[in-house]
Every structure is written in C-alpha cells, then in structure tokens.
Amino acid sequence: MLIRARIVVTMHGEPIDNGAVAVSGNRIVDVGRFDGIKTHNAGDVVDLGEQVLLPGFINAHCHLDYTCLRGKIPPQKSFTDWIKAINAEKSQLSGKDYLASINDGFKEAKRFGTTTIANLTAFPELISRVQPTIRTCWFAELIDIRAPEHANEVVDAAVESLKSLECADMSALSKRRHVAALQMQRWGLAPHALFTASKDLFRRCEEIAQHEHILLTTHLAESREETEMFRDSAGPLYDFMKSIGRPMDDCRNRTPLGLFLGAPSPRTAGKLGGALSNWIVAHLNELSESDFELLERSNSKFHVAHCPRSHNYFGHSAFAFDRLRSLGFNICLGTDSLASNESLSLFAEMRAFQNEFPSVAPEEILKLATVNPARALRQEEELGKICPGTYADLLAVPSNGGDLFEEIIASVGEPWMMIAGQVQ
Ligand SMILES: [Zn+2]
After folding, report:
1. Which is nearest to 345 in space by CA: 307, 399, 386, 318?
2. From the CA of 13, how far away is ligand 1's center (Å)?
C-alpha cells in the first residue's frame, strides 16, 4: 500500500513535500517523494490530500486503570489529600470496573493519535483479559507499603503474570499474526514511588531488570510533600505514611532523588549509574541544587517522563526542562491518568507544554511524543519515526500550509490513523 500526503514529517530528516510512504505488512518499506515511491513500489494508493503524515504518538506515562475517574477528583489542597481521594474512589471499584476502564482508555488514547503507550497497571493479573488496540508496554505497578517483608513475593507474582502473557502471545502468534504482533510488546516493572515501595522492592525490580532486560519506571520527586517527607521528616505525606504504618527510617535529610540514586555516597551513585538507562522516571518536578550536582555526576542517565497537564492540576514546582535537557536527559511526554487530567490526548499535552515553555521549537516538542519516548522504550529503530523498517504506525492531520510543526501541535479533532499497517 502507498500512502500519499501533501507533506510527510518523518522525524528522521527534512519533511518531504508531496511525499509518500510504502507499507508492506506491518512495516514501512520506503518513504520519499510520491513520484519516486510510486515508481519503485507497487500497491494501492491511499491519497490523504492536503494532510500532514507523521509517526503515531507514544505516551510515556499513563495509568489506564483510572480512565473511569475522569472529573471525579477536583484539585485538592495537597498532594496527600489527592492520594486519599483517589484511594477512596478506588475502594469503590471492582475488577470489572478496572477492565472496562482500561479498555476505554485504549480507545481514547487511540482516538487522539496515540499508537504506543507505556501503561502502568496495578492489576497485572487483568492484562490477559484486556484487548489493547494500540501497542502497549505494560508496567506492573508495585506497592508493598503494608507488607515490606513480602517485597520479593509482590514483585515475583507480578513477573509471573507478565511472563504468562508473553507465552500466551507466542501461542497466539501462529493463529492471528497481526493481533499477536501488536500485543507482544515489552513489559516492565514500576515500583510505584519511594514512599510506597520499599528499598527491597526496588532492589528486586533492578535484579529482574538485569536478568530479563526489561524496563523500569517509577514516580520520583513529584511533589513538594515528597521532598518534605524524605528531607525534613515532616509534612502531610510524612504524617499520612506514618499513620498507615510505613517504616519511616529512610526519612533523614535526603532528597527523593538522592535516595533513589543511593546518594550521598558518590561511590554508590556511580555504581547505580550503570543501570540507570533502564529507568523511565516520571515527574522529577522537585529538584534541589544538590540534586543537579548528582545528576551531573551520574555515569548514565535515566529517561524522564513529564506530564504537563497533570503537573498543572497539582500545581507542582516548575519542571526544569532546559537544565535537564542540557544535562543530556531524554525527555518524553505522558498524560498520567484521568484522575489528574482531562483527556489522554498527546496533542493537548504538547499544547500545555508549549504554554509552559513557549521558547521551545515546535519540532522539538513533537520529538517529546515520538522519537524520544521510542528511545526510552528502547524501540528507536521501530517506533517514533518514518523510515524503512519502522512499524507502519502513522497519523495524519489537516494542513493549511502554515507553520508545519505549529499546525500539528494545534491540531484538534480525530486524526487519520494506521496501526501496524492497518488503516483504523
Ligand atoms: Zn503516574
């Protein structure tokens, strides 16, 4: 199949006027000027007219479990109050509700041009009953706050669920090649946060990541209250965690980042540095000068997921985009969940980012939802750009001939889409 558009934005070289993409199976096999593509490739032509064709979006941080909580929790006085509010909502939900919520989330993410999602779920045992309609990297979200002595069991049970999923996908491969190809994605582990997952749980996840070559993600330095808890042994989050029985002996004059990196010992930080590229760290809103020193010293770098609209909802400190970028961090966009956001649109996320950082070039903003998250998911050769060999995951939006990248970011409405070579 050949797909022609007024302009093709490949995210891998200059945009191509009167461009086309040749698709075979679920992959792109050729891209270039329409004249050349139709000479070198056979197939039906889908002419998208005056549209811009670009790679499908990749959401680097999301919790589809909570799609059903849209509009249920108004902004709270504190982050801790929000945790209490979402816990109250969650206590009303059944496994069936979560399944419906996750499936609705997939539909919504797809409607806004997302073709790949890094999705954290607190219910890895439900994954085999979900029908993802887009590529999914499943992260099992792990919490052992009430039973830190069982950290290993918590992790190992989740790994078992995720691995059985891999086996199920393998057996499905022979029957429904297309569906299986979409479902058989990477999986990873998500110790929820330093305040809800024990040191042993983090350590176990790192061990498994080394054996299984999987990805890891966590929430880090998200709120002022988290910093206050670990640095000052004080504040609402400290009080709440203590009240539910969390051992608080790690709350001693350290920042969350310092604790995560094993600082203040630079030796430990250096040692951890080797494995940091496995991590996608969500948020990182609250960083001190000593944290920046640690980031500069670190041997390797994690990836960072910034969620602009969830950030606005909570009123966190300004995200240090320029400093993190200049230190070489790979920064991606995520939507977070609908318990702190209005929609799962990465277009809206890019617009919120643009409001926050108006001096960042629109083309660079588009990278935050395409090539950068592809790299974070270790799939930079297969996702996030249009070139021979990448998956045929595409979207197209109308173009009126204005500033190309501005037009893409400003686009509202449902884009034309292709996933794994299938027009949606
Ligand atoms: Zn999150």
Report:
1. 307
2. 33
